[in-house]
Amino acid sequence: MPAYAENTDLGDGYQAYYQAMTTHALDADDARELNIIRSRNTALITISVRRNDNNGAYCTPEADINGTVTPEGGEAKPLLFETVRMKGNVYQLSTFTFRENMPMHVQIMVRPTAERQPTAIEFTQRFNVN
Fold first, then answer.
1. Which class for 90: exposed (0-12), middle (13-18), buried (19 or more C-beta within 10 A)?
2. Which residues of 93-115 are buried (b: 16+ CB within 10 A; e: fewer)?
3. Buried/exposed 27-53: b ≥16 CB within 10 Å, e otherwise
4. Is 9 exposed, middle or buried (0-12, 13-18, 19+ CB in 10 A)?
5. Which three-class secondary structure string do you get for 27-90?
6. Residue 67: exposed, middle, or buried by beta-carbon count in 10 A (0-12, 13-18, 19+)?
7. In angstroms, how far apart are the furthest CA atoms of the chain?
8. What pairing do the DSSP bridges indicate for beta strands 119-126 and 103-111?
9. Model pLDDT for residues 67-121, shown as the tens digit of each residue
10. Which residues contact residue 124 at a Cβ distance below 8 angstroms, ignoring those fewer than 6 apart?
11. Rg value, the chain, Cα
12. What pLDDT was estimated at residue 58?
């Protein structure tokens, strides 16, 4: 199952790295550690915000992230993101159910810090069950 993975420049050195995949594609140990149920009809979105400094190092702020997922021809449903800290990094995770091969439009607002304006990330993906 191909995953959708991208990054977006949020300005001032901030980058948002995100991907979407079925939870069934997760390694069983990773799913257990993250308390995510592996399912062929549940998708997972992960987002990590990073800021590079001038020395090549980066920090991962706990960004404010919210969004919606909308099936083609359907109603938008909120994405509820949970913060996970692993190995010095901060990730935001959210799951949602889908119907096979139906286009799912994802819209996420990312605010790296309270002082910054949010940036929109949007994509549409079809999830296939193998």
1. middle
2. bbbbebeeeeebebbbbbbbeee
3. eeeebeebebebbeebbbbbbbbbbee
4. exposed
5. CHHHHHHHCCCCCCCEEEEEEEEEEECCCCCEECCCCEEEEEEEECCCCCEEECCEEEEECCEE
6. buried
7. 47
8. antiparallel
9. 999 999 999 999 999 999 877 788 999 999 998 889 999 999 999 988 889 999 9
10. 103, 104, 105, 106
11. 15
12. 76
CB 15 within 8 A of CB 7: yes
State the amino acid at position 124 in one-letter form: T
User: What average pLDDT does range 11-29 have in this prediction?
Assistant: 90
- Tokens at 125, concatenated: 């993906």
